[in-house]
């Protein structure tokens, strides 16, 4: 055998014997690397005379081509084998039984909605609802927002494209349109709460474009602010599960209530933990007021005969406060680890008799 044939046989058998990609590359370097055996032969061509070069050139180049082909073929084979090995190692047997652990949990928002519903149900409130997609009449006009009034702008409304008549539907910015739908469809006395989703163009640590509210509405004869105050103070005490809550009604403005107020609860925020019923801070909990006579009129009722009060509160915010969730946006991130940590057992539905949380 010629020297070239011996060299080729050696290299090719080393190629075939290499067990992995690293080993194959080492063989490539000894043959075709800078100081490899074939590279040395190719360099030697330059020093030959023309006749010798004409004879040796094709032989050496042919050797190089065959070695390159052998390397490529082995590389493909080794890569395929590596992939097969990885697939085999990462195989999951989906027929194995699942480990016995809690799979689902109740989201804090839903937990708090259930708690609120339990508290108000015990006070004699029924649950009402309305659509998420509303029209301007129910979301604004019937609620005594004057046309083009700046209060409409403060709601950062999501509007749909206008229809042929030029009317735009919208995503309701609060649950107050359910007040209108209830007064139009039921005869007083009315005592309802309306939990549901609401939408505003807003996103930061304490705002998300979708959030939840619980609306409340009472319509009856001879209703006055004392009823509102008792109802909400009783609610707050039960919700925060303490007998000594101190509340403060702060004057405010809503077009659909007169007078209007925001309800604050005294709390202590030192040490990053929220304690209700002590301390020197105030926590804004809800908006409320006596239903404006125009709203009662807009629903076809006589405001001289029927009066009432209404309130609306942010459920997610109250859930964060009660259960110590630092960032509102996490509430809607659908992270199962977060849910496992902050979620509630589905088997412990809140009730007045059985306890809330
Ligand atoms: N709809 C008001 C809001 O979203 C809250 C509210 C409801 C205030 C009912 C008064 C009466 O801010």
Note down, in words, how this protein is organized.
The protein has 357 residues and is an alpha+beta fold. It has two domains: 2-89; 108-342, BirA Bifunctional Protein, domain 2. The chain has twelve helices and ten strands. Strands 1, 4, 5, 6, 7, 8, 9 and 10 form an eight-stranded mixed β-sheet that branches. A two-stranded antiparallel sheet has the order 2-3. A hairpin with a 2-residue loop joins strand 6 (247-254) and strand 7. The longest helix has 40 residues, at 50-89. Residues 174, 176, 215, 254, 257, 287-289, 310-312 line the site of phenylalanine.
Topology at a glance:
Blueprint: H1 3-17, H2 21-32, H3 37-44, H4 50-89, H5 108-122, E1 126-127, E2 133-134, H6 136-139, H7 150-154, E3 170-171, H8 177-185, E4 190-199, E5 210-220, H9 225-239, E6 247-254, E7 257-268, E8 275-276, E9 281-291, H10 293-298, E10 307-314, H11 315-323, H12 336-342
Parallel strand pairs: 1-4
Antiparallel strand pairs: 2-3, 4-5, 5-10, 6-7, 7-8, 7-9, 9-10
Helix pairs in contact: 1-4, 2-4, 5-11
Bound molecules: phenylalanine (PHE).
Phenylalanine binds near residues 176, 254 and 310.
């Amino acid at each position: 055998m010629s020297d070239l044939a011996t060299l080729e046989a050696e290299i090719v058998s080393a190629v075939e014997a290499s067990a992995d990609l690293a080993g194959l590359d080492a063989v490539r370097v000894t043959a075709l690397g800078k100081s490899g055996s074939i590279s040395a032969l190719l360099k030697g061509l330059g020093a030959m005379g023309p006749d010798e070069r004409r004879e040796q050139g094709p032989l050496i180049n042919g050797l190089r081509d065959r070695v390159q082909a052998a390397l490529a073929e082995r590389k493909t084979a080794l890569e395929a084998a590596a992939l097969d090995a990885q697939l085999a190692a990462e195989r999951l047997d989906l027929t194995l039984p699942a480990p016995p652990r809690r799979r689902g949990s109740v989201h804090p928002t839903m937990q708090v909605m259930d708690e609120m519903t339990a508290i108000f149900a015990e006070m004699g409130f029924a649950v009402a609802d309305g659509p998420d997609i509303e029209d301007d009449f129910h979301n604004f006009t019937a609620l005594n927002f004057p046309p083009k009034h700046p209060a409409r702008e403060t709601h950062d409304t999501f509007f749909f494209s206008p229809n042929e008549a030029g009317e735009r539907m919208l995503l309701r910015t609060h649950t107050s349109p359910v007040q209108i739908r209830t007064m139009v469809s039921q005869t007083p006395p009315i005592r309802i709460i309306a939990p549901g989703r609401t939408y505003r163009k807003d996103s930061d640590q304490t705002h998300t474009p979708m959030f939840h509210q619980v609306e409340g509405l009472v319509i009856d004869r001879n209703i006055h602010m004392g009823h509102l105050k008792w109802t909400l103070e009783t609610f707050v005490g039960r919700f925060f599960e303490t007998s000594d809550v101190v509340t403060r009604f702060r004057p405010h403005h809503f077009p659909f209530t007169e007078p209007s107020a925001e309800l604050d609860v005294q709390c202590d925020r030192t040490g990053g933990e929220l304690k209700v019923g002590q301390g020197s801070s105030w926590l804004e909990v809800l908006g409320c007021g006596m239903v404006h006579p125009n709203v009662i009129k807009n629903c076809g009722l006589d405001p001289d005969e029927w009066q009432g009060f209404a309130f609306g509160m942010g459920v997610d915010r109250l859930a964060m406060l009660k259960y110590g969730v630092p960032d509102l946006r996490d509430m809607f991130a659908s992270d199962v680890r977060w849910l496992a940590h902050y979620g509630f057992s589905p088997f412990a539905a809140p009730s007045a008799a059985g306890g809330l949380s």
